[in-house]
Amino acid sequence: MNVRKVLIALSLLGLLSACGGPDKSVTIPQAQPAGVTSVNIGDHVVHFSAQSTDQLPPDVARLYGIVRSKNRAMLTVSILQAMDNKAVTAIVSVKAVNLTGQVKNITMRRINEEQAIYYVGEVAVANRETLIFDIGVTPDGVESSSNVRFKRKFFSD
């Protein structure tokens, strides 16, 4: 199985687009469906998705050391140049907060695969828990960070 195709398929679970300028925070409206989102940040586009890790095929989870569970969420972030869709490296930081204010720090790790670059992080989630993700992105060659915020509710039952 082509791992890149699996990761792309996971990233395409839903579709939502929003625009924002560089050096701005972009908040994805709460009423939008869960799944993948993409946001323009100047010369780059940030693609991100969050889903439970039980959606990963077992061989992909093993390859990347991800625990498959309905009680674990995986955040995937990728950054592309807007003009040619070429993947770029970046500094990616993430903090998640649930609706009770509990902070859940997520350590992102970079995955290089052929011409794709992904940043992946995992976090424990409870049934019906809503997380607010704050993603900071600084693409290589860009001096200032852009921030993206979105909500995602997880179900484990």
Proportion of residues in β-strands = over 45%
Gap from first CA to last CA: 29 Å
Instruction: Sum up the overall morphology in one term.
Output: globular
Question: CATH superfamily assignment?
Answer: Domain of unknown function DUF4426
Biggest sheet: strands side by side, in what order? 1-3-4-5-9-8
What is the CATH domain class?
Mainly Beta
Count of discrete structural domains = 1
Helix content: 10-25%
- Sheet having the most strands: 6 strands, mixed
Ordered list of secondary-structure elements with their pairings:
Elements: H1 3-11, E1 17-20, E2 25-27, E3 37-41, E4 44-52, H2 58-64, E5 72-81, E6 90-98, E7 103-106, E8 109-113, E9 116-124, E10 129-139, E11 146-154
Parallel strand pairs: 1-3, 2-11
Antiparallel strand pairs: 3-4, 4-5, 5-9, 6-7, 6-10, 8-9, 10-11
Keywords:
single chain; 157 residues; mainly beta; Immunoglobulin-like; 6-stranded mixed sheet; 5-stranded mixed sheet; 2 helices; 10% helix; disordered N terminus
